[in-house]
Design goal:
single chain; mainly alpha; 2 domains; globular
Length: 237
Amino acid sequence: MQYLEEPGATDSPLPDARGLRGRSAAHVAERIRDRILSGELPPGERLSERSLTEGLGVTRTPLREAFKILETEGLLHIVPNRGAQVIQLSAADVDMAMELLAGLESVAAELACGRGTAAQFAEVAALHARMVACQREGDLVGYFRINQQIHQLIVDCAHNPALSRVYRAESARVRLYRFAGNRVSERWSRAVMEHEQILLALQQRQGPLLRELLRAHHLNGWRVTRKVLDNEVQPDL
């Protein structure tokens, strides 16, 4: 992968750089991920290597490794000789992706109730408790990250590798857009209540109920998110 060299960018950190110097690419990716999800780096934004190396106090090597991590998550698109850009999808793209995700979770629901293990259900419950704590503390990014882990784990409980793989890839592609709905406080509180019902249905292995709860949860969340996106100034939405 080739990158566009920026004037002044070097492999040596600035003498006064602080923060993430010496840390792994995963830590750099986490900082950039938070900026993308918060909207600080909006869809379509081209990322400046020079600005990020100076701002994060890192060299180009871990930064570029972080770009690769975020590309696999569907948050960045790396263009040869042009660098990295925050992914930008049309409203129609996201609509279709959400239809697919809702369908995949519907398929996974009954399978998860039949095949999921007690250990997996306990892990979902532990993640739920952490997610509630994030909501109570106002940690929106942390809440969203755990929320996505819960949905993926429920799908993984179906023990169907193909289903898990497709769900993970498509979920990553629209992660940035799904996050927008969580900025509405009313939806945030309602989503936690819906997750409590989802957890209970999973623990009781009520497949048909879990399927309907997950579908309603998706539709409710996307309805709010779509309104947020429509009201924001984004050229392709």
